[in-house]
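Journal club prep, notes for RB
We'll compare a predicted complex against what the paper describes. Inputs for the flavin-adenine dinucleotide case:
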Amino acid sequence: MQRDILVIGGGPAGSAAAITAARAGLSVTLFEKSAYGRDKVCGDGLTPRAIAALNELRIDHSVAHRIDGLRMIAGKKERELAWPTTARFPNHGAVWPRQKFDNHLLDVAIASGVDVRFESEALPVLEGEKVIGVKVGSDLFTAPFTVLAAGAQGMAAKMLGAERDPNETFGLAIRAYAPTPRHAERHLEACLSLRDEHGTAVPGYGWMFPAGDGTVNIGVGALSTMKGFKKLNLNTLLDQYAGLVRDSWSLGEYIEKPRAWRLPMSCVKRYGQGWVAVGDAAGFVNPMNGEGIDYGLESGMLAAQKFIEDPASAAVNYDREVGERFDSFLRTGRRFSFLIGHPWILKPGLRIAVGTQTAADITLSVMGNLVDSSTPGAAGRVLKIADKTLQLADPLLRKTRASAN
Ligand SMILES: Cc1cc2nc3c(=O)[nH]c(=O)nc-3n(C[C@H](O)[C@H](O)[C@H](O)COP(=O)(O)OP(=O)(O)OC[C@H]3O[C@@H](n4cnc5c(N)ncnc54)[C@H](O)[C@@H]3O)c2cc1C
């Protein structure tokens, strides 16, 4: 079967690409290896940036639980801040459990004319260096453009060389749902001063994301730059964190077994002849907060837009534009992750991050994915300075990285 665009993966990034292309009149087939109604392990937090992307994609998000800000906790310090009003992003986010959110996007895709095929694992078909389509079992689908939106890198990515850089940071996170009377609160909560069972400071955070449906999404995430990362037991870390918040949230028992998943934060190759990678498949996750839904939506839309504008140069143009938007910020984030991998830097760093209003405002912008290569204001300036400083320190930080064993 011949199509204009093939999309591998039915998460937010794949749906955003498929919807954009189908609305422009292109023939699109999207393959999702799971059945309709699959759940993705996630914190379910939509940043103001994600809301802006949904608005651009004309997705009705009124059913999602609105979030007005973030409560940051570091040791005994606590600060509750509202999402800022900026020219680019709205001043609110949301919590939208992924099972409902992703299925809503797929429903919109189907209504927009996308041919969505569930329970279909698609693998790229190459002619020399060029991707000419995908195979699902023995069925061949061809197209001039294939969008790899398969999430944390797996077999399809391996075949294209779109793998994680083994020398770069990645993350692991785990989440569960639990009942709480505070489910309708309008602030996310992030505990930045996590410790593992040995008392080692964890570069990462614990979160309470109220879903407005009687439950809270509770989770913890950690970066691979952590001392002792290989031995880190995420279930234990989650239980410990649940112990910390149990009273203040009157937290009930987990509704289902906690589930963990990977957070890719790099990709050695994100385009080639006839294909591009978007979302997690391209490593677009902010190392400073583990969030990637917004980047997935944006990169998915951008990939389709570039193909609509000019199919012949779409892959190259996509790579350049997505790079201009995200690369320097994500590089700063990865460098930062090596810095905070050192426990003796993490602890005083946290005191600074939440300690003063100005520093907390900057932390808030970073936690909300409101900063990127073109961000004006204090956060943008600080990130530019940090990028330069960390660039100088980078070789030393990597050399002296905390042992992952
Ligand atoms: C525990 C945890 C908490 C997180 N919390 C947040 C948060 O609160 N906010 C936030 O913004 N981000 C969060 N993230 C990150 C976020 O989940 C991802 O950035 C986001 O899901 C990326 O979307 P995607 O469409 O690129 O990939 P995915 O959502 O992973 O979708 C990829 C899809 O591709 C399918 N697929 C894979 N291979 C194939 C194949 N060969 N053929 C067909 N289909 C295939 C998969 O089944 C999957 O449905 C979290 C991640 C984790 C692990």
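Talking point for the session: The chain has three domains: 5-69+89-166+264-326, 171-262, 330-399.
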